[in-house]
């Protein structure tokens, strides 16, 4: 059986998303796969590439042939060079920056608007120290915040 490592298209029209799969070479493009070994989302910035390197190395070692597109993806991740015994790629794989926690940002902005905190970024840096140094002050602030939330929630439902 001739085995190929290739892309299986998923997603919508004009929004391609691919899975990197190991499949029999005689099956159709979106047909049954033997194993899923990764993801490729070209429309994201930078392109999202996730590859299970261990499984790809196994399939390459037993004779699976990557398609041209998959060979280019494996070259970017360094798996193709590892298989061929070449040096790793000089340019590291680009990764999307981690998005800030929206809930923490909202809470910090809400406290700044209420006048409880001067600067939200300074509070984040100082917050772990406050919890470690003064655990007795935190319970005193919590009932006041809960009472404030309850009064605000009650007023909104009656109107």
Radius of gyration, Cα only, in angstroms? 26 Å
Shape: elongated
Q: Kindly state the number of beta strands.
A: 5
Low-pLDDT regions:
none
State which percent range the strand residues make up: 15-25%
Order of helices and strands: EEEEHEHHHHH
Tell me the distance between the termini: 71 Å
Secondary structure tally, helices: 6
Main beta-sheet annotation: 5 strands, mixed
Q: Percent range for helical residues?
A: 40-55%
Secondary structure category: alpha+beta
Round the mean pLDDT to the nearest integer and report it: 79
How do the strands line up in the largest sheet? 4-3-2-1-5
Describe this structure in words.
It contains 6 helices and 5 strands, in the order ββββαβααααα. With 159 residues, it is an alpha+beta fold. Strands 4-3-2-1-5 form a 5-stranded mixed β-sheet. Strand 3 and strand 4 form a beta hairpin. It is elongated and about 70 Å long.
Relevant terms:
single chain, about 160 residues, alpha+beta, 5-stranded mixed sheet
Topology:
Blueprint: E1 3-12, E2 15-24, E3 35-41, E4 48-51, H1 53-61, E5 65-66, H2 68-77, H3 79-84, H4 102-114, H5 120-133, H6 137-158
Parallel strand pairs: 1-5
Antiparallel strand pairs: 1-2, 2-3, 3-4
